[in-house]
Structure formats: structure tokens, C-alpha cells
């Protein structure tokens, strides 16, 4: 018995760090967006218990520290399974690039095993497991455009789904999320009017509203963590803006930087200009909630109200 599923990357259209929580995490307000850039995850049920993991990318841990392996183990334990699972990941999403690749792989494993094992847990049943594995994992049970609150693990899918062309630039320098959050602490002073995310959520996206106000509070900390990227970011941003991006920001804790475009032609030009300067570029699209659910062949009601 086996199943092959796409495992999509995310970008953060905006990210606000509101404060340090008692649990050591940071209180966030962010807008997550899934993209068509994806890995492929294959799950094979094995007769012997336990989890094995193979990945063609040298930067991905193949042991128990891999979030996808942790997800399989957690679900097997939760469901009291006596069989095991062999996971194979074909990697395309840049590793440690702020694109949620590891978290997405973990969520895809939860969704896939729920189906292969016929557990019927759905989003509601998988959510508590997802939250324990990592703060970014619950979002990937939903996909599309969603507001993330608390540690980024409290997910509210938005009625308005953002559509656009994406140019994702991977500067090829992995950045540690924990290190970037630690550096951001120095600037954790309460800000007036720090509600750009809510302004974005409440306005009409069709009229381009809100994008100009979005930014990523982790950008400065990420550049302090990886100062050698400073010049590259200035060049990347310059090209994205020059070619007409509605939004050009760092994704998550970096180091991937992306531009969101209305127009495929402009996005293509931006991608070509960046490649000509030697940058590694992934051209992709936003993936809406419906598109995400279709790609993962997810059925059932969103929010999982039963009965
Ligand atoms: O949850 P996850 O293990 O993916 O997060 C990685 C690290 O990022 C955490 O160990 C923590 O240091 C930091 N983090 C944070 N606040 C968040 C999310 C992540 O401080 N809301």
C-alpha cells in the first residue's frame, strides 16, 4: 500500500512579531500563502513497525529529527498501529529557506497516513498532533491564504484567497529560524498601529488594498544573522520592485526572498533578470485553499464539524 502526494511550500505575505510568550515562543500575526512549488512525498506501509525516511537532498536529516518522521511516529502511536511506514521525499523546496518545506512534509505525512490507515481524523483530529510537531505544521493541514495567530499555529483560512505569480529567490544560505527569532528579541518593543495584517485581512484584495502595508518583522534580524546576504537582498528587492512586484519581502525567517506579481509576463521578466544576475529562482504561483485541497485530494468539510 503506497501513496504519493505533493507537499507544497509557503510564503508569508506579512509577518508581525508581537512579543515573547511564556513558553519561549513568539506571539505572531502572519498571513500564510501556499505556493505551487512543491516536494513529493511517497508513503509506503511496511509490515514491520517503525519509520524510515529517505531524501535525495544532502541538507535534509534522514533520522528522527526530521519533522516528517516525527509526524509518522506520532500518528502511529496515536492510532496504536503495529505496522510501519517508509517515507521518501523528493526535495525541490529550498531547505531552511523560510518556505516551510519540513513542516509541509510533516503535514503531508499526517494527511497521507490518515488516508492510508483509514483513520478518518481529518483536519480537526490531526491538528493537535501537527501543533506538537512544529508551529508551521498546522497551516499545511489547510493551505491557501490563511491568517496565523499565536505561535503561528492558530489558523484562520481567509475568505479572500490571494492569487498571483510568484518569483521566489533562494540566496542559497540556510538560516536558523530559532537564531533569527532570538535576534528579533532586541526590538520587541510594543508598536503603535501594528495591525497591518488585520487591515490587509479586512480590505478588498481585488483593489490591491493592503499589500503596500505588509512587511516582515524578521527581515532585520535575518540580515543580522546572515550579514553576507545584505547586498544580495538589496539587489533582489530592487529587481522585483523594478519589474512591478506588488509585494517583495523575506519569507518567514528567510533566507528566501520573493515577489508577488499580478502579471505572468512581469514575473517572467523579473525571474530572467534575477537569473541573469546569478540568483537561483523558482517561478511558481499562489495555490488557493481549493486548489490545495484538490491537489491533496482532501475531502470533507473544512473545520471538520462532524455529525
Ligand atoms: O515550531 P518550530 O520548531 O518549527 O520553530 C522553530 C523555532 O523557531 C522554535 O524553536 C523557536 O525558537 C522559534 N519560534 C518562535 N516563535 C514562533 C515560532 C517559532 O520563537 N512563533
Structure keywords:
307 residues; alpha+beta; 10-stranded mixed β-sheet; 33% helix; 28% strand; globular; binds cytidine-5'-monophosphate
Q: Can you walk through the features of this model?
A:
The chain is of the alpha+beta class. It has helices at residues 67-79, 101-116, 122-133, 139-142, 177-184, 196-202, 219-225, 230-242, 264-276, 289-295; strands spanning 2-20, 26-46, 50-55, 84-90, 145-149, 154-157, 165-170, 247-250, 257-261, 280-287. Strands 1, 2, 3, 4, 5, 6, 7, 8, 9 and 10 form a ten-stranded mixed beta sheet that branches. α1 links the parallel β3 and β4. It is globular and about 55 Å long. It starts with a strand and ends in a 12-residue tail after the last helix.
Q: Specify the overall morphology.
A: globular
Instruction: State the total count of DSSP E strands.
Output: 10
Q: Provide the β-strand percentage band.
A: 25-35%
Structural class: alpha+beta
Bound molecules: cytidine-5'-monophosphate
Cα-atom Rg, whole angstroms?
19 Å
Q: Order of helices and strands, N to C? A: EEEHEHHHEEEHHHHEEHEH
Please estimate the helix content.
Answer: 25-40%
Poorly predicted runs of 5 or more residues:
none
Number of helices: 10
